Amino acid sequence: MKLSRKVPLNALRVFEAVARHRGFSRAAEELGMTQTAVSYQIKLLEEHVGEQLFLRQPRQIVNTETAERMLPPVAKAFELLNEAVASARQVSNQTLEIHSSPTFASHWLARNLGGFQLAHPHIAVRLLRVSKITDFNRDPADISVRWGVGPWPDHDCHLVGRFTYAPMLSPALAESIGGIEKPADLLKLPIIGAQQDSWLKWFAAMGETAPDLSGHTRHNYVEQDLCGNAALAGQGVAILNHVFYAEDLASGRLIAPFNQRCSDDIGIWLVHPQNRRNIPKIKAFREWTLGAVSADMHRTEPAAPPASGS
Hints:
Elements: H1 3-6, H2 9-21, H3 24-31, H4 35-49, E1 54-57, E2 60-63, H5 65-94, E3 95-100, H6 102-119, E4 124-129, E5 143-148, E6 155-161, E7 165-168, H7 171-175, H8 197-205, H9 224-232, E8 238-241, H10 242-251, E9 267-273, H11 280-300
Parallel strand pairs: 3-4, 3-5
Antiparallel strand pairs: 1-2, 5-9, 6-9, 7-8
Helix pairs in contact: 2-3, 2-4, 2-5, 3-4
């Protein structure tokens, strides 16, 4: 049997107010109800209990002995319920759930979230890698990190950055064909994620004719972190963002033979419902992320090529 059928909670809430105020009118005012509605709830409760709870005397309401026995535990019960709701609300307010595109989650957020938590130690973070678009009406996310061409309607969208990219591979793989001297040399090796548009955009930016990559189907990955792992393992050449693989480039685990600027309209965005823009935990994460990524891009993005004739 459902609790609502066993215990008339609405009537008990009305009872507690009437018994405390010793009057229907003040209880009705506190609860935002009419006196008629208050009287009806008390009648339902008296029928449920099987005892009269109040003596209706001229100009006053007197609690019966039964009402006096009921009032302390009922008041305590509602106090406990209020504490439970307040506790749940506090936990919800202090836990930030982030849904992020996989590569940004694993190759940037997971490595840098410690800085956010040091700055905001009262906010707990729950980070989920997701490939699908977050539905804020269904999913419990507070904020989404989305990879794509934004902004999107009916949301607050903040561009984090459009990152440069280039083909990257392990030094050993490059040496296996005597080194990489020109873009065409890359085609001698397995191309990882060959179906991605960024490959054709990169060859076009290099002034090269678009190659036929239809035969490169062995590593048909979509997510960049999978492409990067395959490249680190020496399985082929992947086109990767500098900001995510700066440490691998600096350590020599990966090389980028043509490390010039190349980017497109795709970027990383922070997305959340418009009515949540001023929630403190969301505002704090948004401001921290925009600042931290901007600083990281200044450190990791390759320098622009010198102007012609300089």
